[in-house]
Design a protein that fits this description.
Layout lengths: L5 H15 L9 H9 L2 H8 L20
Helix pairs in contact: 1-2, 1-3
Length: 68
């Protein structure tokens, strides 16, 4: 499942680094903290590997970006 926004991709990367022991898990906040708790390393790696080009910075919590 690819990331839907740059923010989601960045959060997955931070959570993945913490899971791998590259950064302290106590440094995680918000979405990255939740992702680290609830997702496997493989799932996080897939989200973090999503290319950022063409992705919106953020997607609203109501379920999607604008599609014109």
């Amino acid at each position: 499942m690819p990331a839907k926004s740059k923010a989601q991709q960045k959060a997955a990367g931070a959570a993945l680094a913490a899971k791998r022991g590259e950064t302290a898990s106590s440094a995680l906040k918000g979405a990255s903290k939740q992702m680290a708790r609830s997702m496997s390393v493989d799932e996080l790696a897939e989200l973090a590997a999503t290319p950022r080009k063409g992705k919106p910075e953020r997607v609203s919590a109501k379920g999607g970006g604008s599609r014109h």
